[in-house]
């Protein structure tokens, strides 16, 4: 694995449909990232956030699963241990592609099993419901299940 330059910057993306805020560790200050927006941060600061178990970065398991902030630099994700360089281990986050995959599953049971496994945090529940609205999903059983699972209404 290549050495990561801690003084270089990497882009991070807020995966939430709301703004997120956190304190910097290596310097004095705070960071605010608007909903679904990106921002650049020093690699050293990102590593410090991960090492200090900032849930926005490390997610629910400390390995980036269900994280609220996604590091767009694949080498840095590998360095931190969120992914492997052979492509076998990928960070488990919710994207539009993953939502599309879940909605395209043929059976209701497969859909429910994947939602239960993949949609864990509040921001993920919000994300999949927003995806369903945006794409005008017209499947009563799936929407009914999602409304009960996420405690959010399809129609606003």
Write the layout of secondary structure elements.
Blueprint: E1 9-14, E2 20-23, E3 30-33, E4 38-42, H1 43-51, H2 55-58, E5 69-71, H3 74-80, H4 96-103, H5 108-118, H6 122-134, H7 140-150
Helix pairs in contact: 4-6, 5-7, 6-7
Task: Please supply descriptive tags for the structure shown above.
alpha+beta; 156 residues; 40% helix
Report the principal-axis shape.
elongated
Number of strands: 5
Q: How do the SSEs run, as a string of H and E?
A: EEEEHHEHHHHH
**Major sheet size, sense and barrel closure:** 3 strands, antiparallel
Domain tally: 2
Q: Count helical runs.
A: 7
Distance between the termini: 48 Å
Rg from Cα: 17 Å
Low-confidence stretches: none
How much of the sequence is in beta strands?
A: 5-15%
Q: What's the pLDDT, averaged over the residues?
A: 95
Helix content: 40-55%
Determine the structural class based on helices, strands and strand pairing: alpha+beta
Strand ordering within the main sheet: 4-1-5
Short description:
40% of the residues lie in helices and 14% in strands. With 156 residues, the protein is of the alpha+beta class. The termini are far apart.
């Amino acid at each position: 694995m290549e050495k990561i330059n801690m003084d270089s910057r990497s882009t991070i993306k807020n995966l939430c449909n709301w703004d997120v805020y956190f304190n910097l560790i290596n310097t004095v200050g705070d960071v605010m990232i608007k909903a679904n927006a990106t921002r650049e941060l020093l690699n050293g600061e990102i590593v410090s956030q991960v090492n200090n178990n900032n849930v926005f970065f490390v997610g629910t398991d400390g390995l980036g699963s269900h994280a609220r902030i996604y590091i767009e630099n694949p080498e840095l994700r590998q360095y931190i241990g969120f992914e492997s360089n052979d492509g076998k281990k990928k960070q488990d986050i919710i994207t539009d592609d993953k939502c599309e995959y879940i909605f395209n599953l043929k059976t209701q049971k497969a859909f429910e099993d994947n939602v239960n496994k993949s949609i864990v945090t509040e921001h993920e529940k919000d994300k999949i419901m927003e995806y369903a609205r945006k794409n005008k999903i017209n499947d009563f059983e799936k929407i009914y299940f999602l409304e009960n699972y996420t405690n959010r209404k399809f129609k606003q």
